[in-house]
Amino acid sequence: IIGQLVVLTLARNDEELDQLLENTSEDSLDKDRDKYSFHAFAARRAYVKATPNEFTYNEVVPIQGKTTFDVHLLKRALYHAEKAWEFAQKVGYPSDITILLDISSLIFGYFNKVDELFYYFEEILKQRPHSADLAKHYATLAFNKGLHEKTISLIESQNIEYDGNDYGLLILSYYHLGKPRIALDYLLDGETKILEDKPQNIALLFCLGSELAEKQMEEELVSRYLNLVKGFENGEAVLAINSFIHNSNKNPDLREQYCDQLYAEYQRLNKPVEIAEQLFRYLNPTDINHAQQICELAECILASHELFEKDYFRLAQAYITSDQHGSALSVAEKH
User: Fold this and answer.
1) What phi, psi does 231 have (nearest 5°)?
2) pLDDT tens, 48-75?
3) pLDDT tens for residues 257-309?
4) How far apart are CA 20 and CA 14, in angstroms?
5) Cα three-residue angle 74-80-85, rounded to 5 degrees
6) Can you tell me the distance from the alpha carbon of 68 to that of 46, in angstroms, rounded to the nearest whole number?
């Protein structure tokens, strides 16, 4: 059966693959190794079906998922993924565990259960400390959880040539840990690779780079990095956000004024989702003007991806404040 699953998957014979998965159960398989493979294939197939036209290797799928995702199928994918990891542990984490890595990051991330993965990741790295693919997946998830020291440790422990994403994680982690000189050194070292690979947050990296260079009084570098940022599609939005954060931290009493300025930039720049995400969390959902803006911003964000659970509560409050009680009830029932 496992051989058939492999062949049908490689041949992209989805109809027969679905039939075989539907007609196969864990109890019909004798070996734990086969049970692992079955659940791994089932998890992968359920995820692909739940995310039509989204599962591509060249596109970063948002961890929140998208509104087009089928939650029922995602729950099935989670069930099979959890079972696959249980059996993988029993058989000593087989060499083809990599088929679970990318899918698991997305599935467990969607349901906010990545801590379950961390346990398995730690076990594998104890056995295979130089598993670069695993370390990279782990580092990305650790960074998303705000574990900056862990992120650095995972990447720097691997004797590999860093790609643009690796450099990005190191730069941002050292930046958040208050180590600007090391962060800037990594940017200088990885600048060519970052420009080649074009990670999703490339504008942010060079925007922070200009800030770091300014602290080191390297004016020529500041100018060069700012010019790079302005050349990216979302460069102006990133610069506006960075200015907003800098001003808000410097003068917190004027944050509402800075929110108004950023909202004006949001309108001027044709409503980029990056600014919508930033403003959404700063506006006051109990203020009528802000509540109306939050509702508008949510439409922009939801066209790109789902909100986090806590953000849906904020949206529901904004709906109530702006007398859209039906919409508030709909959000409450769904989330």
Assistant:
1) -85, -10
2) 998 875 544 434 444 555 556 788 899 9
3) 999 999 999 999 999 999 999 999 899 999 999 999 999 999 999 888 888 77
4) 10
5) 125
6) 15
Amino acid type, 127:
Q
DSSP character at residue 234? T
The count of other CB atoms within 10 Å of the CB of residue 93 is 19
Tell whether the model's pLDDT for residue 225 goes beyond 50: yes
Q: How far is CA 163 from CA 18, 55, 82, 140, 232, in A?
A: 36, 22, 30, 13, 19
Coil, strand or helix: which one is 335? coil
241, containing H or E segment: helix 235-250
**CA–CA gap between residue 121 and residue 237 (Å, rounded):** 36
CB 149 within 8 A of CB 170: no
Amino acid letter, 111: F
Long-range contacts of 108-117 (CB under 8 A, 24+ apart): 108/78, 108/81, 109/63, 109/141, 109/144, 110/63, 110/64, 110/65, 110/69, 110/74, 110/78, 111/74, 111/78, 112/309, 113/78, 114/141, 114/144, 114/145, 116/82, 116/85, 117/85, 117/141
Evaluate if residue 110 carries a pLDDT over 80. Answer: yes
Amino acid at 168: G
Q: Extract the tokens encoding 41.
A: 């294939």
pLDDT for residue 55: 47
Tell me the C-alpha distance between 64 and 112, whole Å: 9
15 burial (CB, 10 Å; 0-12 / 13-18 / 19+) is exposed
